Here is the input.
Amino acid sequence: WFSKIPGVKTETYEVAPDRPNVIARIEGESPYPRLACLGHMDTVPAGEGWTKNPFGGEIEQGRLYGRGATDMKGGLAVAMMALKNVALSGKKLKESFLVCATMDEEGVEMLGALDVVAKKLVEKDTFLIACEPSGLKRGVEHKGVIWYELITNGIPSHAGNPKVGANAIYAMCEAQVALKKAFDGMSEESVRVGRPTVTVSRMGGAQDECCARPGEM
Here is the structure.
């Protein structure tokens, strides 16, 4: 689609097997600072309860139905049309304009976005527009994210005599409470996005019929 637009340079970078990022750009008089619209191509799993084909892209009464129609095929389509309209306007840009269509935004590692940064397509001085759905409201600040993995180790013991061991799952629970208290006590706060937060997204423990083993979050 991009390759058919005059004046648009298109590149693909395979980030994972058969899963590329697609980068389209209009070159400006100066490559920096550049404007980049960022949109992802992947979706969360389809899930149950659909009355239409979640990957069918059906249009009914002016509405598109399917997994990812809003998050974020809608935003990606807007970015694509913006680039096309600028290209067809014939105006020479002072700085380059990019649309970065990335893979794996819904994945744990966000490999597509990280690859865009690693290839220096987006840098500290880039003006970035994230096209995530926002109810058509403009946002000028976004929370960053840091992923942590905590592991607590215990001492195995028989379930009928736990005092001779140490339950790693209990230790993990205490660690979670301490972590939340630490974040709740932070004084930093943004007018737009509020205070720093911590979210425990997964916790697991391994044990056999008589022994408690390390818990993992």
About this structure: Residues 208-217 have pLDDT under 50 and may be disordered. The first strand starts at residue 9 and ends at 16. The first helix runs from residue 69 to 89. The beta strands are 9-16, 19-26, 30-40, 58-60, 63-65, 95-102, 127-130, 151-152, 204-207, 212-216.
